[in-house]
Specification:
heterotrimer; A alpha/beta (513); B alpha/beta (363); C mainly alpha (401); A: 513 residues; Rossmann fold; B: Rossmann fold; six-stranded mixed β-sheet; 14 strands; ABC_transporter-like_ATP-bd (chain A)
Chain lengths: 513, 363, 401
């Protein structure tokens, strides 16, 4: 199936999200859509999938104009979409999820689960998508859940598969597996629209690359073009892909973590006896596949959750019983992993978000009254200093792009003297230009003598920033290494390969597939 | 819900009339550009014509279509309008905080006589009466210890007819158990229940029977109440409960909530006695299970007060409706007439006469 | 959103510097679609109301019978009915000082209780309990008002404080339950409404609350010394409603506590991460909401001098939810919403009294206005107003909380 978009335009009020986009997806090709966050990739795909109505332009399927009013129309035309956030029912099995919306019944309205399971099995062998049809989705690792989404699309006989930022939630291993799946699909004649902003991936699987910037197609490229050139097209200027930094001037330990253990609400021990030091003037990277206790570990450092055992010492003072308020006031800067959930209030203005955890300070309030002037002055200064792209300081955070939202969080945390900076996934979902900027600021903070802890599931980021790397697996720190060791070795540590027993556990989890 | 009933009825009416919208107009409805469409739409010619006199009424939060005391009082106003050819005005209250405003609005409309319905309006009516000495006020179900010259309380000795109803119920019950339930434990409700109980006791005394009353005990002043005059569901479940306990005659004193009780009665094929108005008129769908009704002649009292005001012989003397003056009474037996032994009816009539004559006191 | 200066992003000055004036203008412009839609909703409701008036007027229906012979009669009578109805509505709500006075007095409790619902909502809590909180306040205000004997002024102050405190306690219970046990405030406030209602019924059955020598469920009126003085026929308590609005505005927009409330309401986990005490904020917000509902009871008992009855709060506590909804959870909103409701209620009375319009209609009119305001897309659809931006979905998003 050949899919064409001609002059596709979408406006939101005065804002043009997509401006006369022309794009052709040939049968059996992996077409990469490369662009920064907020460039308009998702808007374009939502029009293609019938979720948004184009303001202008048309979509052609095999040369015939098509009108997609609902996703149902798009599906019927052979378009499948795997969203960044999965649309699966966690308490259903794989087979049940696949047959959702197209339930097969055996008379009397009895669901034919057998038939659905058979379909899943058939599809998974044909496209080499290892999935157990009877497994409950909530028990599956993220990578396998994504496969379920792909199978769902294929079960609807999708000829064109749209993958919206599919790698953002995957481990390096899972990313490799996904790449294999994409190649297999292509071989079977399915076209894939691969939306991403990661250059490495584009180069690995792409057949054709279209770069979108600020709602417009700025060019096409072939996968063998150099990364720097692609990055420049994407950002609109030359980008420095490596973080320039001096060797660290390591000071004394600022944050000492001793035997911290966290048990979650369900009674599972998620952080097991973790100990480490964060030293002034040094970046400690905590690497690991998502869900291995990093989230809970750093939450316990700030005091959002109380450690069930162990101590956290800040300059020798025990802060493990502190709540977030005291920890923040003691000089911890905190960039949460999920900024939309924990980092900002999307309905609040930029101005307000810039003081979300500072309003208590005398700089911004007197007694019960907020000092509006000071808050405004602060906002002006931070917006300028961090180059936050916003219409004005009263715009809501929801109106900002992901990168600029993150800049607001970063700017806020950097706007007071810090002893420790804890940054989790500081550049997740952030465009290349902003990544560069945020990385630079983190290193500057390090050079000011602050102890920096970076938690990231992206090895690139860990390598770019860290002076030391601690790898977490199954709630433990399974190794602390320096950034000069090869990626593969860290990848193995992340998979728990240092220890036969735990490797097995991981295999079983993934092996359910 | 009830509030939409009238509008709905109006719309249905429109539909019907639109179909027949090719008739000829009546001469009487031309020419008139009177701004008061609420004027009685009665077609019969009033016996008198007093267009300069305006009689008005303010309901309590039940509204004029409550099939109970607001409605009956309102009927009194309409009857007066039909007979006397006077102007009318009306306001429904939604909440106690509106009472004073509502009465005031009627004052602003230059009403000559204003009737308010229910004890809750007692304060507001008294205040308005003091402020507007030229207007005659009357209030249903409320008595003042010392009323100003232009304010008349209209109360009803409902215990008397309830006594007769109790006697009748005891004489008709086959199971020997009768039940009653109230809308709220307030004097205007419990008066019925007290009288009812006394009537049953009188029957037991006369005939040596042991008919039981469930749902009320005059001595302890405890009984079954829905605590809600609106909820038919509550009325229905309370009555069902009593029927399960063996009651075969139910006496609901709960306004619209009592309609639920009638439903339960009809479902279980037992009998009931209605209150305030003749149930065979106000709730005709249940007429087949109604032995009789204890009528509280609020319409009569209201009409009399308005007539007195028009005729210039209004007095602040408390009006008490009794069997003697016909302000209260029992309704006809209607459909169930054949089931009441002539003997029992004769006895009831005899007791009524005794009460009127003062030989028997219902207390 | 539309960043104009894109050429050299790294060096470009933030566009916000282009002038504060424009910023202010923008803020007003942002409200414009909301204002337009609200006005359109009211107009639409009035149009439908006009139809209802026409078809509930006996004379107009009469004239339909001979519509084809004398069509003019129908239009004339319909016109007269609508004109009478709506002039009565206007006269009865704002047409005379007497009407304005009535409108203000009816609006005051709605404004207070509406502010309470709105405040809780801004803190992420759906307070269905204004009714119960009002009843709690009414019990306290009434009891202090009729039972004690203090000098004027002091008596009023004590009764008012008692009512506000009782409302705060009633709201605070739901807030505490939410904070301490996670009990959902919708359920607990609804249940507390029942508790308050039956508590009132119970107390009115006791001699302590009944009038001497009476068994009616009616308390004595509050003592003269505990009621607000009247100025130009309006009780001065009405002023408190507007002061309360000002106070709530300051609290929410200008104070640290309000900042916390709004943050907790919009994103509790971000608020917690920023060091705010989410549970305490929930408690505080519900207690304040209850205090405002208690103030609404003050308006009725000590302002309008109502005696305690089981229906003393009428439907104010529930209308308050609608008022807050109409006000779109802003601070000015409940004031306008309360005034609109007060005007409709007051004008509705005049429609009944002067124009003989069925009382149901005034309420249907209110309901229609609320319905249309709550469904902006419907209004735009009907009136073919072009959707501007996403302004219309503010409400839906807002209440999705």
């Amino acid at each position: 199936m050949k899919l064409e978009m001609r002059g596709l335009t979408r406006r939101f009020g005065s804002f043009t999200a997509n401006d006369h986009i022309d794009l052709t997806i040939e049968p059996g090709e992996i077409h990469c859509l490369l662009g920064e966050n907020g460039a308009g990739k998702s808007t374009l795909m939502n029009m293609l999938y019938g979720l948004l109505e184009p303001t202008e332009g048309e979509i052609l399927v095999d040369g015939e104009p098509a009108d997609f009013d609902t996703p149902g129309d798009a599906i019927a035309a052979g378009i499948g979409m795997v969203h960044q956030h999965f649309m699966l029912v966690p308490v259903f099995t794989v087979a049940e999820n696949v047959m959702l919306g197209r339930e097969q019944t055996r008379g009397l309205g009895i669901l034919d689960r057998g038939k659905a399971a058979e379909l899943v099995r058939e599809l998974s062998t044909r496209y080499k998508l290892a999935v157990d049809p009877t497994a409950l989705v909530e028990n599956l690792p993220v990578g396998v859940q994504q496969r379920v989404e792909i199978i769902k699309a294929l079960a609807n006989e999708a000829k064109v598969l749209i993958l919206d930022e599919p790698t953002a939630v995957l481990t390096p291993q899972e990313i490799d597996e996904l790449m294999d799946i994409m190649r297999a699909l292509k071989k079977q004649g399915t076209s894939i629209v691969f939306i991403t902003h990661k250059l490495r991936e584009v180069k690995a699987v792409g057949d054709k690359i279209t770069v979108i910037r600020r709602g417009k197609v700025v060019g096409t490229a072939s996968p063998d073009a150099p990364e720097a050139e692609l990055a420049e097209m994407m950002v609109g200027r030359a980008v420095n892909l490596t973080v320039g930094k001096e060797p660290p001037k390591v000071g004394k330990p600022v944050l000492e973590v001793n035997g911290v253990t966290v048990v979650d609400d369900r009674g599972t021990t998620v952080v097991r006896d973790v100990s480490f030091d964060a030293r002034g003037g040094e970046v400690l990277g905590i690497a690991g596949v998502q869900g291995n206790g990093q989230t809970e570990l750093i939450k316990s450092l700030l005091g959002i959750i109380r450690p069930d055992a162990g101590k956290v010492l800040l300059e020798g003072q025990d802060i493990s019983r502190h709540g977030p308020k005291d920890s923040l006031e003691a000089g911890i800067g905190y960039i949460p992993e999920d900024r939309a959930h924990d980092g900002y209030v999307s309905s609040f203005s930029v101005r307000e978000n810039l003081v979300l955890d500072l309003y208590r300070r005398n700089d911004f309030s007197r007694g019960a009254a907020l000092k509006l002037d000071a808050i405004e002055k602060n906002a002006k200064a931070r917006i300028e200093e961090f180059d936050i792209r916003t219409e004005n300081m009263n715009s809501s955070l929801a109106s900002l792009s992901g990168g600029n939202q993150q800049k607001v969080v970063v700017a806020r945390e950097f706007s007071r003297p810090l002893k420790v900076l804890i940054a989790s996934q500081p550049t997740r979902g952030v465009d290349v230009g902003s990544i560069e900027f945020i990385h630079k600021r983190i290193i500057e903070e390090r050079d000011r003598g602050t102890a920096v802890i970076i938690v990231s599931t992206e090895l690139d980021e860990i390598y770019a920033l860290s002076d030391r790397i601690a790898v977490m697996y199954d709630g433990r720190i399974v190794g602390t290494v320096t950034p000069d060791i090869p990626r593969e070795q860290i990848g193995l540590l992340m998979a728990g390969a240092h220890d036969g027993h735990e490797t097995q556990a991981h295999e079983t989890q993934g092996g359910a597939a | 819900m009830k509030r939409t009933a009238r509008s709905a009825a109006a719309l249905v009416g429109v539909a019907a009339l639109t179909l027949a919208a090719c008739g000829d107009r009546e001469e009487s409805s031309t020419g008139s550009s009177d701004p008061s469409p609420s004027e009685s739409a009665s077609s019969s010619e009033p016996a008198q014509s007093n267009p300069d006199f305006k009689a008005c009424i303010v309901s309590d939060s039940g509204g004029f279509d409550d099939k109970s005391f607001n409605q009956t009082s309102y009927a009194g106003l309409q009857n007066a309008a039909d007979k006397l050819g006077i102007e009318t005005g009306e306001v429904e209250s939604n909440a106690p905080s509106e009472f004073a405003d509502n009465i005031d609005a009627m004052v602003q409309e230059d009403c000559n006589s204003i009737t308010t319905v229910g004890f809750l309006l007692g304060d507001a009516t008294l205040a308005a009466a003091k402020k507007n000495p030229k207007i005659d006020f009357s209030i249903v179900d409320f008595a003042y210890e010392k009323a100003p010259q232009n304010l008349k309380g209209l109360v009803f000795n409902t215990a008397e007819p309830s006594f007769l109803a109790g006697y009748l119920a005891a004489g008709t019950s086959e199971s020997g158990i009768v039940g009653t339930l109230g809308g709220a434990q307030i004097p205007s409700v419990t008066a019925f229940m007290d009288g009812f109980q006394l009537g049953i006791e009188k029957y037991n005394e006369d005939e040596g029977t042991d008919v039981q009353l469930i749902g009320w005990d005059k001595e302890t002043q405890k009984g079954t109440f829905t605590n809600d005059f609106e909820s038919k569901t509550k009325g229905q479940s309370a009555a069902s409960e009593m029927i399960t306990q063996g009651a075969d005659i139910i006496f609901p004193v709960a306004g619209p909530a009592g309609l639920g009780a009638l439903q339960a009665v009809q479902d279980a094929d037992v009998k009931a006695i209605w209150v305030d108005t003749d149930g065979c008129v106000s709730a005709a769908e249940y007429c087949d299970v109604l032995l009789t009704s204890v009528m509280k002649g609020m319409d009569v009292a209201v009409e009399e007060a308005i007539t007195a005001s028009l005729d210039g012989n209004f007095s602040s003397e408390l009006y008490t409706g009794t069997l003697e003056n016909g302000g209260v009474g029992l309704a006809p037996y209607n459909e169930l007439e054949g089931e009441i032994p002539a003997e029992l009816d004769a006895k009831v009539q005899e007791l009524k006469q005794q009460i009127i004559d003062g030989e028997l006191k219902v207390q | 959103m539309s960043d104009v200066s894109v050429q050299e992003p790294a060096k470009s000055p933030p566009p916000e510097r282009k002038g504060e004036a424009r910023e202010e203008g923008n803020r007003w412009a942002a409200y414009l679609p909301t204002i337009k839609t609200t006005v359109a909703a009211v107009v639409l409701a009035l149009l439908i109301g006009a139809l209802l008036i026409i078809f509930s007027t006996p004379r107009v229906i009469e004239s339909l019978k001979y519509f084809f012979s004398y069509p003019w009669d129908f239009f004339k009578f319909a016109g007269i009915a609508v004109w009478d109805g709506y002039t009565a509505l206007v006269k009865g709500s704002v047409g005379s000082w007497n009407s304005i006075e009535r409108t203000l007095e009816r609006a005051a409790p709605l404004i207070c209780a509406g502010l309470g619902v709105s405040l809780a909502f801004r803190s992420g809590l759906f307070n269905i309990g204004a009714q119960g909180q009002m009843l709690a306040g009414a019990i306290a205000a009434g009891y202090v008002g009729f039972h004690f004997d203090f000098p004027p002024g002091l008596h009023l102050l004590l009764a008012a404080v008692a009512a506000i405190a009782a409302g705060a306690v009633w709201g605070g219970i739901a807030g505490w339950l939410k904070a301490a046990t996670g009990a959902h405030e919708v359920i607990s406030t609804i249940m507390l409404n029942y508790v308050a209602r039956f508590l009132m019924i119970y107390l009115l059955g006791k001699e302590l609350f009944q009038r001497p020598n009476s068994n009616d469920r009616l308390s004595p009126p509050p003592a003269e010394s505990a009621t607000f003085p009247q100025v130009f026929g309006v009780h001065t308590g009405v002023l408190l409603a507007f002061l309360a609005a000002l106070g709530v505005w300051w609290l929410l927009e200008r104070s640290t506590t309000g900042f916390e409330m709004r943050a907790v309401g919009a994103n509790p986990s971000a608020a917690a991460t920023a060091g705010m005490h989410v549970q305490r904020t929930y408690f505080l917000a519900m207690a304040l909401a209850g205090a405002l509902a208690g103030l609404a009871a003050v308006m009725q008992i000590l302002g309008q001098q109502d005696s305690l009855t089981e229906n003393v709060a009428g439907t104010v506590g529930f209308d308050a939810i609608t008022v807050a909804l109409l006000g779109r959870a802003t601070t000015l909103g409940p004031v306008l919403g309360g005034l609109l409701f007060g005007a409709l209620s007051s004008g509705g009375l005049a429609m009944q009294a002067a124009a003989g319009v069925p009382p149901e209609l005034a309420q249907v009119l209110q309901a229609l206005i609320v319905l249309f305001v709550a469904a902006p897309a419907l209004v735009r659809g009907v009136l073919r107003v072009k959707a501007e931006g996403d302004g219309g979905t503010v409400l839906a998003k807002g209440w999705g909380g």
